[in-house]
């Protein structure tokens, strides 16, 4: 121990030599009100006790110098501190404008004081608007700042002011581990953060055993016993003054009804305090036999009063911080201290909107005794702070550095980051359902809406408009900026004009329909329209297996058979917008009839409708169901039943699926021989059932030069919507670099 003490003395000597021959650290402590002085006074006593290391200058401003708030500068004089400067900085009015004007007045007066004092470091406490003026002045005048109680979280504007001071301060003294972590998270240098505890605890933890009965008698009357009175301290909430005044009125009504001797302290100087004082006088608190209303109580005496009270009520930070050291019950009202760490002695009444609620809290808390809490300190904060001050090297650069967390890339210049919230409205017009989705630039379906597709043109268009308007409104809530609308629909489409030329039989009344004009007029957004097969190909090009592939073909295997062809990175539409009608490639001259009126089309063999047709034939002949299958009487026979029967060994079903797969494979071979893609993507609900059959046909029937083509199943969950979104995202975000 002796060794380490001598080593510490040697380090202090070296530091003093480093800072200049026996240079004393000139410390300016600025105090604005009775509350911050209770935290700063222990530090001031410590600095004063070591004159070989420090020179102390005391600046007093704010409500210390106002008679209505007790002229509390006198207690600083009683503590035998020389006040170097008194600054009258409070503009009366007790409203928001007065607070701003007070900050401005302090900023006008402080530069002259700091120029004369020339301190090495200024100590600033807490989260008051006066403290913000002090920190701003010191920072702009290149004076180092030590901030006490940074990193804490509470309610109202205090949080913002506290964190603003943190950003201006060079050194930080915090009271709790959580506050320290908050400061680190705010990118402050860990080496300049001291977890010391609250300086006021150095006095609190040694105060309770002193004579207290005379203090209680002086402030509350000789007939009052310990644990049989209440201390009330409530301040205005500057972000909701009207509500805080109402809450104070309810608190006083509850205290009157509770009928216990109560010491009421006047509120601080914040906006709304004047109205709160009016409420006190309106209710006759200053003349009520059960109440003692005072502007100020010296901190030493206030400690004794709260230590032996039956309860403390209000919204002061003192209630959730200092009073815990004594285990005195506390009722914390409203949101002013929301986020503060508290001991089990604190009962929160967040929504103190009725007298009964506050009265019930008083009944629950009054007279209890809780374990003492040391969340905010262990009584040794001042020695730690003095040691921290001595360690400050004045030759270090004044400009503070922030410790930002590491990032992978400089994403501020990354085009993907810039565009990640840009989105499209995607519309999918299917034979059964009408779907609208918000799709992000990365292909994420942020929000999706589904309705049954109406049978008539008028109803269908009205529903599209209604769903698009709803989705566009919701996009604001999910932080998406809609660039345009993309529509995927069955049938032949003129994408240049946004017109459905004619549709399949699955969508009725859907020929010669101008979709672009009414939707664009209603939403004031650009609109793109294309065939669902083409949209599937676009989805693969942007989000799926086709990304970066120059030539590929997409085949949709669902209710019908469709597809899209991408050649040299561009979608092929054809001279009359009929390219890639892949479902109508003829693979047999005398095959089954297709919905298009022809015979032997791929769609007549391999579509969901074709498989359903064959399943019905088997079912009508009692040849569909095998062991392990069952159907209800009213159940409609579907392609799924055929697939299930084949899996369970139904040879007839197996033969039908084999024929369908062969027909699809022959169609793919024709495509390979025509456009020679490097990739074939099978999409839709039947893709997994056909992929092996298609590969087999290619190996048997295709020319050797195209047999190396890759055949894969799409990994996109919703190619129709993603393709519709691609119409928008590909065109609206194109750039020339």
TrEMBL record:
GO terms for molecular function: ATP binding; hydrolase activity, hydrolyzing O-glycosyl compounds; metal ion binding; N-acylmannosamine kinase activity; UDP-N-acetylglucosamine 2-epimerase activity. This is Bifunctional UDP-N-acetylglucosamine 2-epimerase/N-acetylmannosamine kinase. An N-acyl-D-mannosamine binds at residues 492, 504, 532, 581, 584, 603. CDD domains: ASKHA_NBD_ROK_GNE, GTB_UDP-GlcNAc_2-Epimerase. In the N-terminal section; belongs to the UDP-N-acetylglucosamine 2-epimerase family. The active site is at 532. One of its GO terms (cellular component) is cytosol. Homodimer. Homotetramer. Homohexamer. The hexameric form exhibits both enzyme activities, whereas the dimeric form only catalyzes the phosphorylation of N-acyl-D-mannosamine. It is found in: Cytoplasm, Cytosol. Its main location: cytoplasm. It catalyses: an N-acyl-D-mannosamine + ATP = an N-acyl-D-mannosamine 6-phosphate + ADP + H(+); UDP-N-acetyl-alpha-D-glucosamine + H2O = aldehydo-N-acetyl-D-mannosamine + UDP + H(+). GO terms for biological process: UDP-N-acetylglucosamine metabolic process. Pathway: Amino-sugar metabolism; N-acetylneuraminate biosynthesis. SUPFAM superfamilies: Actin-like ATPase domain, UDP-Glycosyltransferase/glycogen phosphorylase. The keyword Transmembrane helix does not apply. Zn(2+) binds at residues 584, 594, 596, 601. It holds the Pfam family Epimerase_2. The gene is Gne. Its EC number is 2.7.1.60, 3.2.1.183. Keywords: Allosteric enzyme, ATP-binding, Cytoplasm, Hydrolase, Kinase, Metal-binding, Multifunctional enzyme, Nucleotide-binding, Phosphoprotein, Transferase, Zinc. Residues 53-390 form the UDP-N-acetylglucosamine 2-epimerase domain.
């Amino acid at each position: 121990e002796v060794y380490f003490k001598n080593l510490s003395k040697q380090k202090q000597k070296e530091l003093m030599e480093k800072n200049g021959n026996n240079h004393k650290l000139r410390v300016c402590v600025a105090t604005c009100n009775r509350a911050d002085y209770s935290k700063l006074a222990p530090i001031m006593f410590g600095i004063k006790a070591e004159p070989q290391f420090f020179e102390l200058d005391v600046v007093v401003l704010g409500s210390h110098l106002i008679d209505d708030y007790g002229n509390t500068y006198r207690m600083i004089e009683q503590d035998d501190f020389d006040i170097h400067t008194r600054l009258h900085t409070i503009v009366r009015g007790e409203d928001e404008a007065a607070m701003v004007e007070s900050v401005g007045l302090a900023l006008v007066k402080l530069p002259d004081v700091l120029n004369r004092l020339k301190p090495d470091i200024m100590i600033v406490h807490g989260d008051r608007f006066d403290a913000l003026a002090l920190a701003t002045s010191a920072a702009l005048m290149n004076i180092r700042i030590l901030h006490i109680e940074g990193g804490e979280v509470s309610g109202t504007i205090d949080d913002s002011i506290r964190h603003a001071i943190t950003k201006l301060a060079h050194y930080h003294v915090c009271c709790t581990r959580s506050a320290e972590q908050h400061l680190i998270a705010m990118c402050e240098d860990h080496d300049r953060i001291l977890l010391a505890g609250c300086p006021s605890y150095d006095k609190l933890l040694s105060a309770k055993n002193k004579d207290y009965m005379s203090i209680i008698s002086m402030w509350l009357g000789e007939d009052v016993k310990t644990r049989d009175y209440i201390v009330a301290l409530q301040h205005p909430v500057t972000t909701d003054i009207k509500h805080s005044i109402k809450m104070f009125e309810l608190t006083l009504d509850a205290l009157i009804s509770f009928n216990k001797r109560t010491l009421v302290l006047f509120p601080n100087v914040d906006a709304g305090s004047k109205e709160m004082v009016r409420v006190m006088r309106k209710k006759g608190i200053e003349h009520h036999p059960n109440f003692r209303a005072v502007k100020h109580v010296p901190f030493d005496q206030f400690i004794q009063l709260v230590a032996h009270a039956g309860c403390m009520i209000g919204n002061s930070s003192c209630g959730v911080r200092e009073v815990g050291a004594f285990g005195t019950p506390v009722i914390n009202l409203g949101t002013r201290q929301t986020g503060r760490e508290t001991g089990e002695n604190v009962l929160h009444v967040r929504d103190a909107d009725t007298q009964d609620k506050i009265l019930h809290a008083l009944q629950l808390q009054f007279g209890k005794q809780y374990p003492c809490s040391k969340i905010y300190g262990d009584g040794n904060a001042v020695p730690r702070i003095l040691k921290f001050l001595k360690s400050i090297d004045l030759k270090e650069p004044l400009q503070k550095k922030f410790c930002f967390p590491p990032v992978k890339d400089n994403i501020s210049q990354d085009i993907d980051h810039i565009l990640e919230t840009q989105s499209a409205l995607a519309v999918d017009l299917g034979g059964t359902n009408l779907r609208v989705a918000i799709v992000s630039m990365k292909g994420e379906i942020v929000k999706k809406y589904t309705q049954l597709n109406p049978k008539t043109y008028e109803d269908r268009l009205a529903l599209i408009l209604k769903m698009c308007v709803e989705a566009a409104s919701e996009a604001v809530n999910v932080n998406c900026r809609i660039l345009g609308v993309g529509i995927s629909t069955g049938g032949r489409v003129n994408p240049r004009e946004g017109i459905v030329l004619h549709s399949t039989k699955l969508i009725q009344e859907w020929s010669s329909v101008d979709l672009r004009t009414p939707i664009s007029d209603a939403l004031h957004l650009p609109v793109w329209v294309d065939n669902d097969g083409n949209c599937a190909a676009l989805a693969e090009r942007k989000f799926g297996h086709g990304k970066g592939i120059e030539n590929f073909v997409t085949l949709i295997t669902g209710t019908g058979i469709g597809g899209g062809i991408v050649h040299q990175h561009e979608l092929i539409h054809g001279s009359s917008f009929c390219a890639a009608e892949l479902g109508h490639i003829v693979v047999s001259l005398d095959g089954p009839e297709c919905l298009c009126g022809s015979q032997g089309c791929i769609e007549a063999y391999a579509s969901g409708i074709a498989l359903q047709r064959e399943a019905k034939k088997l079912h009508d002949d009692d040849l569909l169901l095998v062991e392990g299958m069952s159907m209800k009487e009213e159940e409609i026979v579907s392609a799924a039943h055929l697939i299930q029967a084949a899996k369970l060994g139904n040879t007839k079903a197996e033969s039908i699926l084999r024929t369908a797969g062969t027909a699809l494979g022959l169609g793919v071979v024709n495509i390979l021989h025509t456009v020679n893609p490097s990739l074939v993507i099978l999409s839709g609900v039947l893709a997994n059932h056909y992929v092996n059959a298609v590969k087999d046909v290619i190996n048997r029937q295709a020319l050797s030069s195209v047999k190396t083509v890759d055949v894969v199943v799409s990994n996109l969950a919703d190619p129709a919507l993603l393709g519709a979104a691609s119409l928008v995202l590909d065109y609206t975000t194109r750039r020339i670099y």
